[in-house]
Amino acid sequence: MTDRMKTTAVRVLVLHGPNLNLLGRREPETYGIVTLSQIDERLRDLAGVLNVQLETFQSNSEGALIDAVQAAMDRVDGILINPGGYTHTSVALRDAIAGIGLPAVEVHLSNVHAREEFRHRSLIAPVCVGQIAGFGWRSYALGLQGLVDAITQKREG
After folding, report:
1. What are the residue ranges of helices labelled H in the chain?
2. How far apart are the first and last CA of the chain?
3. pTM of the prediction?
4. Rounded to 5 degrees, what are φ and ψ at 130?
5. pLDDT tens for the 157 residues of the chain, in order
6. Facing residues of 78 across strands?
7. Domains of the chain, with CATH numbers?
């Protein structure tokens, strides 16, 4: 690995899908009391430790999330995504992630596999390097660490 690779920050886009703007108020028994801005703040703190340049974006719109994925293609090294309800429905979001060729990690606050059966199948996970679910806001932190490791391994070739 070159010295430049050792010092170059990893660039990550964090995408928050629909209804995540309601965190802290929406079904706290399922999603917890931590707000989206608190999650972003905690991720920025972790990013500083991991030498990550972090960018975050939330939308309730499938098209806006797809546009963000496509726009990230030449700007970041990987994507951390909580697709929310689009996890189970969006072929278009899945295709966008597959199409840009960047590593992605899917995260969920709740354990989707312990919930309603329709939440058990992710259309997004098969085009990701990993999926983390069930650890509340910490799913994002664990996902960021895993994504950074995957990007670093890829850089080292």
Report:
1. 3-7, 28-31, 36-50, 62-72, 91-100, 138-156
2. 8
3. 0.91
4. -175, 170
5. 334 445 689 999 999 999 999 999 987 877 778 999 999 999 999 999 999 999 999 999 999 999 999 999 999 999 999 999 999 999 999 999 999 999 999 999 988 887 778 677 899 999 999 999 999 999 999 999 999 999 999 898 8
6. 12
7. 3-156 (3.40.50.9100)
CA distance 80 to 72: 12
Residues recorded for the chain: 157
Q: Which residues are catalytic?
A: 31, 108
Nearest by Cα to 112 from 134, 131, 93: 134
Q: Which two tokens stand for residue 133?
A: 């679910």
